[in-house]
Design the sequence.
């Protein structure tokens, strides 16, 4: 198992390096710069700023300097948030996004898993069609439609929940953003689990167990659910990273000071270092969660450890 884990870990490192390289050069290729504004700066001041942030160096030199800094754990200063390092901004926004992401993930697993099991127990029934049509709706409707509808219903019409904002330890502020983040994942998990559970229940040894009188709940939760979880776990790798780092749309709509809002503002302002820092963090989280998924795959199906 250790050799399997090390192979997966070492395979992820080149991917992270390629991601850093592509993000660096794509940001530099985009039109505009971090100090462009409606009112042009005097040439002396602009030259001084470019020198301060090493933007006057050749592109290859900027790249090497940035890679060296990252290897030493320094993501550089923010170009737009004066006096702040990128690591400080990420440290400020990441806990908020993590809180939303963890709650949304737990809600998606509980509700989506329950819907998937209910639908798989009676495939083709009225309940199955109803639940899967609702799941299809959840997959099809994007966050930027769902979030305003939730605000309209629960904040404006019913007046039972706040429309946005983020107050410390006020859990009511989390309800609507968490639901908006979780709804698409509920739909995906429900559909994936239903399909894989139906396939698992059709396996010969489970049909034999059912014929011998094994109760349905034991058949599902003791025998069928373990192999049926493999597609769901595979989906949860990138999905978890996306939830943990915050949804750009949801955080913008609800006015939440998470990592997603920093990313949007940094992209609009051409804040190179902040965009690269968030992209690097997001890529590292995707690789980390995919690594965890690989370990879970190896635990659930020992045959995969040899690949």
Sequence:
């Amino acid at each position: 198992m250790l050799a399997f884990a090390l192979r997966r870990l070492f395979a992820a490192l080149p991917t992270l390096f390629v991601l850093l390289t592509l993000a660096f050069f794509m940001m530099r290729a985009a039109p505009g710069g971090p100090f462009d504004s409606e009112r042009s700066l005097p040439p002396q001041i602009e030259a001084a700023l470019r020198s301060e942030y090493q933007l006057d160096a050749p592109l290859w030199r900027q790249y090497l300097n940035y890679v060296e800094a990252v290897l030493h754990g320094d993501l550089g200063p923010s170009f737009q948030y004066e006096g702040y390092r990128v690591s400080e901004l990420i440290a400020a926004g990441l806990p908020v996004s993590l809180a939303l992401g963890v709650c949304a993930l737990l809600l998606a697993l509980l509700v989506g898993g329950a819907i998937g099991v209910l639908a798989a127990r009676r495939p083709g029934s009225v309940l199955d069609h109803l639940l899967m049509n609702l799941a299809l709706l959840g997959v099809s409707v994007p966050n930027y439609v769902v979030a305003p509808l939730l605000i309209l219903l629960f904040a404006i019409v019913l007046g039972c929940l706040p429309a946005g904002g983020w107050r410390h330890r006020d859990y009511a502020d989390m309800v609507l953003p968490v639901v908006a983040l979780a709804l698409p994942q509920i739909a995906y998990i429900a559909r994936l689990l239903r399909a894989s559970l139906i396939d698992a229940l059709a396996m010969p040894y489970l049909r034999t167990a059912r014929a011998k009188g094994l109760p349905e709940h034991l058949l599902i939760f003791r025998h069928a659910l373990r192999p049926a979880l493999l597609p769901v776990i595979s989906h949860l790798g990138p999905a978890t990273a996306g939830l943990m780092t915050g949804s750009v749309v949801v955080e913008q709509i609800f006015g939440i000071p998470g990592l997603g809002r920093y990313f949007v503002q940094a992209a609009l302002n051409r804040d190179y270092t902040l965009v690269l820092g968030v992209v690097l963090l997001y890529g590292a989280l995707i690789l980390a969660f995919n690594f965890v998924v690989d370990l879970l795959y190896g635990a659930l199906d020992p045959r995969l450890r040899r690949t």
Summary: The chain has a mean pLDDT of 81. The CA atoms of residues 155 and 161 lie 5 Å apart.
